[in-house]
Design brief:
Elements lengths: L6 H23 L6 H13 L5 H11 L4 H12 L1 E2 L5 E2 L20 E5 L9 H10 L3 E2 L9 E4 L11 H14 L6 E4 H5 L3
Parallel strand pairs: 3-4, 3-5, 5-6
Antiparallel strand pairs: 1-2
Helix pairs in contact: 1-4, 3-4
Length: 195
């Protein structure tokens, strides 16, 4: 068996490719411009590098579908967590894949997994977990198929895809994409509005 395809090596190779993709995107977007030459170069790179990442696959598909330069630029900015129009300032978790339209959050017998750094004025992650438990919510330490809510701390890491919290987000996205679960990915702020 080829060593590159063993699980640890495959994961390392995929992580390196994702890191490289993020670096290329940051370089391409650094001047707040995205032109046809940059689009073609990035598209060629994606064609030559098979990356098993749901969001990168969606970006690649957008290249294949001739999505406009402006829309592609926005997708790349969102993926890397940059708001280039704000002078390249890193976004907090607002650039993460959070539910846009959220019905009231239910707590009783619903499961919650918290990830990232929490910056709430009411307290840290432990305080928030205790508040969820007081409302009869269940705290899980990992993303599982029967999870109801994944809560992302407001101090989201701009390179979230390669942090421990990023792995939880990635797993939740994968489950949703494969229609295995209805996990809702919400922000700390969304949760606090319902506590």
């Amino acid at each position: 068996m080829d060593r590159d395809f063993t699980a640890p090596n495959y994961k390392r190779t995929q992580d390196r490719k994702i890191d490289e993709f993020i670096g290329i995107c940051k370089g391409v977007l650094a001047d707040n411009e995205f032109n046809e030459v940059e689009k073609n170069t990035l598209h060629k790179w994606l064609n030559e590098n098979q990356i098993n990442d749901i969001q990168i696959k969606k970006i690649h598909q957008s290249f294949e579908n001739n999505t406009s330069l402006n829309d592609l630029k926005k997708m790349l900015e969102q993926y890397i967590g940059y708001d280039m129009q704000s002078f390249g300032v890193m976004n907090a978790s607002t650039s993460l894949p959070i539910e846009k339209m959220l019905l009231p959050i239910e707590f009783k017998d619903k499961s919650f997994c918290l990830t990232g750094k929490f910056a709430s004025a009411i307290g840290n992650r432990k305080v928030i977990e205790d508040m969820i438990k007081e409302k009869d919510g269940i705290i899980k330490s990992n993303v599982v198929l029967d999870l109801d809510y994944l809560v992302i701390g407001e101090l989201g890491n701009p390179d979230w895809k390669h942090s421990n919290s990023g792995r939880k987000i990635e797993k939740a996205l994968k489950y949703r994409e494969e229609n295995k679960t209805g996990i809702k990915i919400i922000s700390e702020q969304q949760l606090l509005e319902h506590l």
